[in-house]
Amino acid sequence: MRVTLQPRHYAYVPINTENKHFLAYSKGKASELLLTDNFVCITFTISEKERSLGGSFVAQDLNFSTIDSTFATVNAGRPALKGTYTQSISDIAHI
């Protein structure tokens, strides 16, 4: 797998195809890449049909010093932003 680090600079990561579900997952669309110190994890979307959103949802972004949350609701298929919240985790990052 080729991971773009910056324009025209790439890292190549071998994929472990020994996972028992790899063939089924790889037929889907790669949707997310998670890089940690020890692992590279790929998330696949394997459903072809569209799914409707639920009544409400939360999205969170974990940064080095904060956790940012966004709250939204869905009415008639249209999401509406209900609010955002930022929580400092600078003490945890310091430790």
How would you explain this protein's 3D organization?
The chain is mainly beta. It has two domains: 2-45, no CATH class; 56-89, no CATH class. Helices cover 11% and strands 53% of the residues. It contains two helices and seven strands, in the order ββαβββββα. It has helices at residues 22-26, 90-94; strands at 2-6, 9-12, 29-35, 40-45, 56-62, 66-75, 78-88. The strands form three sheets. The protein has a three-stranded antiparallel β-sheet with strand order 5-6-7, with no helix packed on it. Strands 1-2 form a two-stranded antiparallel sheet. The chain has a two-stranded antiparallel ribbon with strand order 3-4. A hairpin with a 2-residue loop joins β6 (66-75) and β7 (78-88). The mean pLDDT is 80.
